[in-house]
Amino acid sequence: MDGNGRFERIFRSPYAVPNGIAACPDGVWVVDQITDRVALVSLDEPNEYQVTHFLKDYPSDSSNTSGMCWHDGDLWLAANGSSDLWRPSREQDARKGAGEVLRMDTDTGALKERRLLPGGGGTHGIEVDCRDPDYIWLSTLSRQTLSRVRIADWSVTATIPLQHDRSHGLVSTDKALWIVYTNERTIVETDPDTGEPGRTINIPDNMPQPHGMTRQGADFLYCDATSGWIVRVHDVIDG
């Protein structure tokens, strides 16, 4: 699919500034960049306020959250440095200019793990590797790369180059990584072994800006931190 896919505004986030989104069997998780709370909402038809059913939410120890994924009952949150632009600082916030990765239990909201971003700097995209869930992909923005990290010992096992500045949402499939480039308003299929780009999906100017992204079946869902909308991109993945 080169060019424009089929886009649909499906509902508004329960939070004002959704900057990460993660589909799961019960619905979709959304994280707010201001408060760093995470909410699980249904994928039902929205009500008259253009929101869906609010299932539960938790506070998190993340800060300036700029990406999220779900895997096997856990949420992984990309803490893109401190949140002093948005709210009063907290003791548990990441340091200014230093990204961190947090793992949260979705049954209890408890923090299970906290790691520094390899190489330091900021991070936006985060995704457990679809081909091997013992690994996780992280955007390492100071180096303009994606890093594949072994979860057990947090060692970097591979890196691939990013094609543009301000990469954001990230989806892993059996065949590719799909990377959101917010400023370019594109979603680019990328070879996970070489970093070579493949298909490109262009976001029309009349649709919300892409930030975080997740997969639901054959579709992508992305969130827009500026407008609060959740958008469906139909029929991206074959099979």
Outline:
The chain is 0% helix and 47% strand.
CATH architecture annotation name: 6 Propeller
Number of strands: 20
Helix share of residues?
under 10%
Strand content: over 45%
SSE string? EEEEEEEEEEEEEEEEEEEE
Ends apart, CA distance between termini:
14 Å
Largest sheet: 4 strands, antiparallel
Structural class designation: mainly beta
**So, the CATH homologous superfamily?**
TolB, C-terminal domain
At the first level of CATH, what is the class? Mainly Beta
- Helical region count? 0
State the low-pLDDT regions, or none.
Answer: none
How would the global form be characterised?
A: globular
Number of domains as seen in the coordinates:
1
Could you tell me the radius of gyration in angstroms? 16 Å
| Sheet with most strands: strand arrangement | 1-20-19-18
CATH fold call: Neuraminidase
What does the average pLDDT come to? Answer: 95
